[in-house]
Amino acid sequence: MRKLSSLTVPTMRHLSVTSAWRIGVLGILVMASTAHGAVLYDEDFEDGSTDWSSGTIISDPSDPNNNYLNFGSGGSYSWLGGQRNDIGPTWMSSVDVFLDPASAANGNYGFEFTQAITDVDDNPYRQDNLFHVGAYQIRPASQGSPASYALGVTVPNPHHSTSSEGNDPSYYVQQAYNNDDPLFTVTAANWYTFSWEFSPTQNDEVLVDWSMYDADGNEVLDYESTSVLSAAEMGGNSYMWFIGASSYYDSLSIDNVRLTSPDAAVPEPATMSLLGLGLLGALGGLTARRREKTHIAQ
Ligand SMILES: [Ca+2]
Ligand SMILES: [Ca+2]
Ligand SMILES: [Ca+2]
């Protein structure tokens, strides 16, 4: 998980003149960096209501302070507070998904999910950007019955499983294993964080950076590709969608869905108080420096 770390701010009376200046500058810098990650959508399922299309909010049995969303094999989606055509070209979305390697045991397991994008002209969507999760066969039954499967995650862009692939959401996971393409094998039942980052390149393209993090925050899967949209064409988010696949999964659990963009920066209340602290610190430093100057002049 990427979270803004909390700041420990020392009390003013312990500060030297130099420190007061530093805190002043720090406060302003914090304001800038927080605005850089302006939060446009943040769904942690704690308030008991949600705009996700399907599912039940569950009280986490392993954490009394947490709720998450669980939905069935019909899938679920959200527009993340609304389709946006004006937050590009730089923005990011992310979601936590619970994965259990035991799901893959019989080989008939998989799902796909996407962050779709739209353009500045607000076309409904322009491209899906998929993660593929599913069982892949590591030993066929012919080499030792029963066949053996593992749970993998891969990220080819922009394909998703189609009828020619049997509508099998694990199709690309098996392909990644067979072809030695980027693949993460899930060995621990836990929450994993998935993110998409969109950012402009020097050639007016948009780089799409898929990332998967384990519960300790380690990036375990990384993939980059350029979007069909140029930086000038990139509008922003369309839906985030967990595609239904009735014969491949029974239910999925997700949490902490977020959308951020520096191009739609809105200072938050906490930011404003830090800005105030920054100005106070800067003023305090200024006053102290003036006194110091006067003293030197004498
Ligand atoms: Ca939650
Ligand atoms: Ca909510
Ligand atoms: Ca990455």
Q: Which ligands accompany this protein?
A: calcium ion
Number of helical segments with 4 or more residues: 3
Secondary-structure element series: HEEEEEEEEHEEEEEEH
The strand count comes to 14
Oligomer: single chain
The main β sheet shows up as: 8 strands, antiparallel
Protein name: PEP-CTERM putative exosortase interaction domain-containing protein
Pfam families: PEP-CTERM
How would you explain this protein's 3D organization?
The chain has 298 residues and is of the alpha+beta class. The protein has a single domain (34-266), classed as Jelly Rolls. The protein has three helices and 14 strands. The protein has helices at 17-36, 171-179, 269-297, and strands at residues 39-43, 56-59, 67-72, 75-78, 91-99, 110-119, 130-139, 148-154, 184-186, 190-200, 205-213, 219-230, 234-243, 251-260. Strands 1, 2, 3, 5, 10, 11, 12 and 14 form an eight-stranded antiparallel beta sheet that branches. Helix 1 (17-36) runs antiparallel to helix 3. The termini are far apart. The model is unreliable at 1-35 and 272-298 (pLDDT under 50). The structure holds calcium ion (3 copies). Residues 43, 45, 47, 49-50 line the site of one calcium ion. Pfam families: PEP-CTERM. InterPro entries: Ice-binding_C (IPR013424). This is PEP-CTERM putative exosortase interaction domain-containing protein.
